[in-house]
Queue: 2 jobs
Job 1
Amino acid sequence: MASLTQSPSQHNSTLTISPLVSNRRQDFFATPQNPTLFNTPGSNNNLTFLTTSTFDPHPLANAAAPLSQAEKLRLWRHDAWMQHHYKTAEYVGDKVLALTGDPNDAFWLAQVHYASGNYVRARQLLLGKQFDASVSCRYLGALCLTQLGQWDEALDVLGEVNPFSDAFPVKNQDGGIKLEASMCYLRGRIFARQNAFERAKECYKEAVMVDIKCFEAFAELVENHLMAPQEEWEFLAALTFDDDDELVRLLYTTRLNKYMHLGQYEDAAQRLRDEYSLGDNCDVMLSRADLLFVQCKFQACLEVCEAVLRRDRFNFSVLPNYLSCLHELGGKNKLFLMAHKLAENHPTSHVTWLAVGVYYLSIGKIPEARRYFSKSSLINPNFAQAWIGFAHTFAAEGEHEQAISTYATAARLFPGTHLPNLFLGMQYLQMNNLVLAEEYLATSYSICSTDPLLLNEMGVIHYHKSDLKKAEFYFNQALAAAKYLNADSKAWFSIHANLGHVYRRLGQFDKSLHFFHQVLRVGGTDANIHSAIGLVHLKMGAVFQAIDTLHDALAIAPNDPVASDLLKRALEENMNGENEALRRTSSLKPRKQRHSMQTPLVHKSRSRMEHGNSLLSDDVNLLANDLHKGEDSSDDDDAIMDIESD
Amino acid sequence: MSSHSDLRRALRQALPLLSDAKLYQSAKWAAELLNAVPDPEPFATEPLSRLPPEDDCIILARTFFDCKEFDRCVHALKPCLSAEATFLRLYAMYLSGEAKKERSSETVLSAQDAGGTPNLQMSAIVRELEAFHKTNKTESAHTALLHYLHGVVLLKQKNAGAQEHLEKSVCMFPYNWSAWQELGATLATPDAAQACVARLQSRPEFAGVPGAMLQFFEVVLAQELLPHSPHLQAQLDELTALYPSFAFLKVQRALGSYHALDYAAAEELFDEILATDPLRLDDMDTYLNVLYVMEKRAKLSHLARFAASVDEFRPETCCVVANYHSLKGEHEKAIMYYRRALALNRRCLAAWTLMGHEFVELKNSHAAIEAYRRALDANVKDFRAWYGLGQAYEVLDMHLYALYYYQRAASLRPRDRRMWQAIAHCYEKLHKYAEAIQTYEKALGIDEDPLFQYKLATLYELVGDEERASEYMHMCLDGEANARLWLARYELKRGGYVAAYEYANEFGIANRGLAQDVEEARGIAREAKKRIV
């Protein structure tokens, strides 16, 4: 190992040792560099330094000097591999290796084995002592081991820490990805596999630090929310981009979380649109979709996702957002179609089974949904959406304990997203454990302080603690955050209803009614809201209105115990209190009606009012019982109104 | 290229003709072609993405609407922004939502037909209307129609804002009678109606010609809420002088008479209407109600057959036939026809109430309650449904509930003594004697029925005020036989033996009470006589 730290071949990519470029002798001779730095021991034939990394489709045309036998065979092998003639490539590669014994030739032969799925053969080939010193051979060997599921052995080959970390950082010159970065990334994957997420994260970060072109590691960091939001932004700021890497920096900027530094994001997106005309590139649109999703603008997000999918039917990065939006907006039919298309075309992808799970969740088939979420997370254990969906299925069935343990796993796996903590808080809230609920919501709040759903839940906590002023504060915050929300979204609905409840308890009845009416105006029918309005009217002393509204509530939910109990009290109030009917009608011209009332009972009235008396002896039956149900549910007005906790 | 514009011109001319001839499918085909003719404008850079002109869009959408393809109409109008297009689009959206709602709900009053199936388009419509009113402040007939639609939707949601929008609509464009009708539906009490009319009268819009519309509106309100007011007659006379052949006025007069319980006059008026317009089925159900109450079996039967021969599947016809069966005591059949009427039109107001009555006849209180409730959903002003609810709950011994419904009925018909009688009875059952006394006294103010006086007397006795009780007993001596017995007992107790003897004697002579009462009266007479001596 010690000798390796001196060797700088980890700064190269496989481009350097590619037979195509290694034949360009003029390039090499045109730009001589410090030869000792780029000397790669163990290889007789590597001509390391190049100013250009572009593959030339016709390398032979450039070749000035006549090619040696080995060089000819290498070109043959390479082209056969590129054209997926694996038998040829294997046949020729074997001959080159026998001729030269060069580790690079071993590497390329192993590549051919790898590409044709023969991981064991590739591994066996690279096992030889003579190839130990080659960085590329070690990398590929470790990769084969991971494919074979021998994670510990792979880690042995790679080393637990980066052996090159002390070396002087040199920018990769051949334009490819530094092998050192690839090894760091692979190390990260192994740690992630071993559930050592903190170490995995460090490895990924190191990979990107070593070479910003190691997008694999960057994507792993960002997509799996391994870093806290602030950490992500700091990490990006710490990366060194050259001037000509500006495009990469902008692209990476748009990939980061959308919880903070929105100005920077907008700026980057703007420049990508204007300077690089990448405005309608799928990934730039995807970042827009992410932003819209975080802001709960589901309709707009859905439109962006659909635009992406029109161009790229199975864009896997955009699908999770698309599925969530459809679920949120009730697009069951589209979910069905998408799930089927995915299952037909990509039966082994984790996103496919996420789609199937979301579909079943949407149509309320919870056990099926759970099965497919679990399948998705088995295929890709680091898939946040599948975990959360899996937990949702428990929550939907009221299995709080299991839901909590699953959400907690998700929270551990994905520290960079606020959702698992939010859901944990919601579960504890449902279990009436306010202390724990508040703790988790606070954690969630520290990650994201702008999610209307979260702010709503914070309000609910304070409502339950009877800290109405604070509850009002959070609900108003949520309202401000939800300013652009579609008015028919559930979040909008809950926030308005909750504000109504808060003002009801604060005794600000007019404000309370205002919010409840807002909900009814766009939210359609909800028995609880009608009951709440009824209660407010009752408190305001408008008994008739209260009774009317409570009837509306019971018309929607005939067995609602709260509404029937309130109705009973309103009716009692009506009986005991000042008689509204008497009062109201007494304001009419009082006694003049003598004349007009001369013949009212002469004819049989169509309304058959007489029947009531003859039937009075009938038994009290079911309906009466129904209406009396729930008598015991309330001594305290405030306890009975269930606040909306989404 | 010119052939394109020629074709377009020809189609634009042909389309109104086809629509007016009610050849809807042909019109649709032509409109689709019109919208498919390529745009000749040379400066159109992207010919495929250019939209056809808005007018053509609206024409196409109209043909879809005529063919009852509402969703397609909505889609076709997506790019159009004018008030006319917006109204057509939102109205189609509303109708589509209603149609889907009707289809998804089960048969009338079945277990699934909870009445809770919402029109899913409502909130989207409200949002769009709000956005439109925010940006568009111009006053035009189409804006008025948008206000009308806004009012309709809000009214369905029982939102108080409905009235405001409907008033705006009728002010901007008074000739939309549906808007007036919906405005009427928002006014639940006579007070509210009077306030609304007064408010509209003060507006400058109704100073000239449109004032007639307001007058028609006033007549309808008065007929529904204040059928006894002399003002109604005067106004009807005035309007009839101006428009003598307008059947609407005659119907209003007939309905007024019906509501004022003057059935003979109502019958006469309906006969006149039928003579002038023999195939008119509108309001026939009311006419049949009149005949039902007057128990004119033959005429009712004849008219039921006649209505069925004109159109069997009109809600009015179904109500008429149901009425006929009800009169024959075939309540199940009657209910079946009411169901049919409601399947044809769920907003058929009368059918709900009448079906409730039939359920009462069948002693099915739950179904009756449900039917009455639906009646009130359709029309809060229906005092019979309120009263029916009260009765149904009374049957179930739920006097607390019954009380409230009777109160509502009484607030709609404050001069109907039956309402007050029912309220008082509930108070009595709930042991609220003071309130019961108050209410009976009110009923007494309307009609000096000896029954009320007797009730009052017994109530005063219950609260321990024997003096007042005896006063009321005196008042109802002629009407209530038992008053004598009570007075006899009362006088005996306080030493007025002569009076006691007389009362008891008279009671015995009248001899209308139960055997044991007669026996008791004899006892009192003997006792009193003994004391006198």
Note: The first helix of chain A runs from residue 2 to 6.
Job 2
Amino acid sequence: MKPPLPVRLWQWFEQTTPGRAIFRVGVPRSNLARAQAMVSSFLLHLQPAKVQKRTLQPATTLGLGLISLFLFAILTVTGVLLMFYYVPSTERAYNGMKDLEFVVSAGLLIRNMHRWSAHLMVLAVILHLCRVFYTGAYKRPREFNWLLGVGLFLLTLGLSFTGYLLPWDQLAFWAITVGTNIASYAPVVGPKLKYLLLGGNVVGQEALIRFYALHVIVLPAVAGFMIAVHIWRVRKDGGLARPDEPLEAVEQLDAGQLPTNKSYGLMELAKGTSPQVGVDPEDLVSSWPHLLFRELLVFLAVLALVLSLAVFWDAPLEQFANPIHPPNPAKAPWYFLGLQELVSYSAFWGGVVVPGLLVALLALLPFFDRGRAGVGRWFARERAVANTIFSVCLLVMVVLTIIGTVFRGPNWSWQVPWKEPPAAREEH
Amino acid sequence: MPDESPRKFYGLFIVLGLLVSVLVVLGYYKDQFRDWKTYQHQFVKEEVRRATTPQQRLLAESTPVQIRQIVLPDLNRVDRCTTCHIASEDPSYGGYPQPLAYHPHHDQHPFDKFGCTVCHRGQGRATTTAAAHGHAEHWDEPMLPLRYIQASCGQCHQAADNPAAPKLARGEQVFETNGCRGCHKLGGTGGLIGPELDTVGARRTPDWLRKHFTDPASVTPGSGMPPQKLSEPDLEAITLFMLSQTGGGLPGYYASMKVIPSATEGRKLFEQKGCIGCHSIANRGGKIGPALDDVSLRRSPDWIMRHFRDPQSVTPGSVMPKFGFSENQTRALTEFLLHLRDQQVSLSLPGMISPVERGREVFRKYGCIGCHGPEGKGGVPNPNAKTAEQVPGLQHVADGYTKDELKILLLRGQKEIAPLDPHRPPPPLYMPPWRGVIQEGELDDLAAYVFSLSTKDKDLGF
């Protein structure tokens, strides 16, 4: 059977001189060629040439890291398209949003995709973090990658938060006002931090240009670089955490030696003749095509989800930002509403102690939780204590966020969403 | 390893691929299918139908289907209304159904200078019907119903002297004669009991305002404002006048049109500038300059205009100063002088009317009528006030106060009103302090007027 036309065209192209100059390895036909195809490509070599069969099973990771990555990619592409039209000026930004909606071809669709992807990415990153915790995958030798992950989580929040201001509508203005006020509760540095972020004491033109620069250059560049390292480290740390990971391999990694696993052996990069102890060669499969094909499927699924949200639901755009007419209540973006709810009880505890402690605990987690029991298994019995503590914290944050989102009405008073709120008193 | 081949996912791959394609097509369709294109096609079709020569037909067929917009940098507006209302400047489309109808009477306000939304409101940047007409969530400026459209004239022009906006003038008159100023500040003058009204037209809808006049408490619970008994035309006019108070200062060219060169405006200027010091009308006034009663018979409009710009240029040796009037002021004064013979002019000039008459004007100007009633007869409800739950009339003021005591009371106001029942909420209306608002001379006149209301003399009759 002849391969289909696109494949034949591709095969022909690879035989030409420029084709050979670009792709050293053609469409691979042997396992060796498949491994070479992976390592000889800049992007693909971030991933291992061979993966455990286990890695390919959806239940192992739920694909959450991958989903976050693809959302980041969609955000980058739609974000650049939006940049063609966006002017970071308080006078023009809002009108730009209106023009996107009413004049620019597909402008609203692109903005919707960007908006919904941003929310989804925050969600996916949080779920990814939970997955890594519940499978104990942050433990030795993956401490540093966990640390990178916590950094990427904060960067994701930062990216979403800085982007929130850019439409310059009431929603943007007051969410950032509330959000930066929470930041200012930190002792000593808080007010300075707020001043640094806003370029002043209130949200204005200086804040807009700073948030814009952070949103389109600084944070994406840092995040992009860290994502690359994060993925590369997954491979360098011996692939996904798994219950049967031999201790020797972990110690080899810690000692800075190249592991003697199969792909390195195949490429004669590592000395040694025996395959890893306890690993049946049959458990390893080539990333090309098994992993790559599944990744493509996840990408299509993510794209389909984002597109269907974007086609049927429009991104919010409220009135032009008005510094003298705060909405009541003024709410931060949803992922900060748990904090805002805490702040409503105590600015110091909710704005400083709790978030500071949570981030510090997350970052230091792999360095004080050193046991290797239960690694690579969901909700391992051996990790019951850690899992319980994490779940309680998570649950509290989720409940606080739900309260802040749904159950808080004017003046941050308790409000039942299915009841008509009492009419806000007219100013008279 | 046949089960590990990605071939088993080909079905899923095809399904997801198709789903993404369908969504992209759907998104494209939603983006490309816009109402305005339908309307423009209708317009092109109509133009083609009207064409009589092949050339005209060709021209009509080549009408581009595209977004049309009027960009008004000074007003910070982009009006895309003509994207649907494409024939609004073509009189031959008079009587056509919307959106293809012709917009009559736009010669004074050319679209390329004024756009549409500055008068009609709505959302100029929008290109879908609901959003453009401002009936969208998070858009605070819905289109003004046509019956209230004269409100927009008030943004640039003074209400009283715009002959094209009689409802607006009537609204201003209702406002000034019903004592609204007693409680509400407008343009820097008025009481402090109710809110300022300078931006009320941008904040409130016509329906809200109407309800607020007939039954204030229905839209503002706890409001102390007395319900207004107004005739339907008066109600519509005052609503319209309120809608004209948008507080949006219009820039440059638009603000310069404040003064419509009308006789009314000219008369106002004539009074303000003290022309009567030198000239006389109907034998009142100075004798330094010539009497002006029949100036329209003696001089051409052009002569009068030039005379205002530079008296000496037409009357060498004239001692009349150059006043430096703006072009519109000059035209207004000229208009006034030309119409002196047509109408009975009664100038209200200082020194010619009695303090009581001036005081009546002060009483009207600051809206005292709003609480104390016309001619100070009282009767306005003030729930829970000891004085029969009403604002007291002023007929007996002269019995209880000296003029100086009255003036002190006027300046200080009376914040505490004795309640009928201390357990009920305090009376909502009170006497605001007028210090710094009412001028010194006005205060004397007002006191004289209030004293003139005294019924003492008439009481002696029985």
Note: The radius of gyration of chain B is 31 Å.
